[in-house]
Design brief:
Terpenoid_cyclase/PrenylTrfase, terpene synthase activity, Os12g0491500 protein, 58% helix, Terpene_synth_N_sf, 12 helices, disordered N terminus, mainly alpha
Length: 218
């Protein structure tokens, strides 16, 4: 419930919510949740975070800030899916090198956000970076998804990213990725059978076309 604390106001236990505060002062990189925390807990770090991006944007602000790493990884993924990544080899290497440094330093903007962490792992591993699945251990159980904002929204895209990541096992003994694959596949199948796909900006037909090949061998 910490992700939707702004809707609870004084009914929320703000001391409990502040346990999720990140190094940049935000709660989940969410301006709205952080603003509520600043109002009810009078937290200086939260106020500094809000000041930093209101000074930058001046007017309307994004729903998540900062979001650079995830958006850059999505760009890399899109370039590879469309088959034109060879044109942007240097740019892609640049993005992945920066992501790898964040991974090695256990940066929270990568490690604490489920889709960012899963996509970073998948792209880094497929590009030959030296990483292990140990950092994915906190996603071993379905509760890691259920207790997140992505679980609250039944986010199909995040589930699919976790499932794809689980398929990059180097060994049958990699229980971390095996467990992630088992529960994410189960959730995806349930969403498919019950017609409860969370498609965001994409159509349900498009999402089904994307899901079926990935789950065909399950």
């Amino acid at each position: 419930m910490a992700y939707v604390s702004e809707g609870l106001g004084s009914l929320q236990d703000w001391d409990e919510v502040m346990a999720y505060q990140r190094k940049n002062g935000s709660l989940f990189n969410s301006p709205s949740t952080t603003a509520a925390a600043a109002i009810y807990s009078f937290n200086d770090s939260a106020l500094n975070y809000l000041d930093s991006f209101t000074n930058k944007f001046g007017g309307p602000v994004p729903a998540m800030y900062p979001q650079n790493i995830y958006s850059q990884l999505c760009t890399v993924d899109a370039l590879e899916r469309t088959g034109i990544s060879r044109i942007f080899v240097c740019e892609i290497r640049d993005i992945l090198d920066r992501t790898y440094r964040c991974w090695l330093h256990n940066e929270e903007d990568v490690m604490l956000d489920i889709p960012t962490c899963a996509m970073a792992f998948r792209l880094l591993r497929t590009h030959g970076y030296d990483i292990t699945s140990d950092e994915m251990a906190h996603f071993c159980k379905q509760s890691s998804f259920d207790d997140s904002i992505h679980g609250y929204l039944d986010d199909t895209k995040t589930l699919l990213e976790l499932y794809r990541t689980s398929q990059l096992r180097f060994s049958r003994e990699d229980l971390i990725l095996e467990n992630i694959g088992n529960w994410s596949a189960k959730q995806l199948k349930q969403q498919l059978s019950s017609n409860k796909l969370s498609t965001s900006a994409r159509s349900e037909t498009s999402m089904r076309e994307e899901l079926n090949p990935d789950l065909s061998h399950e």
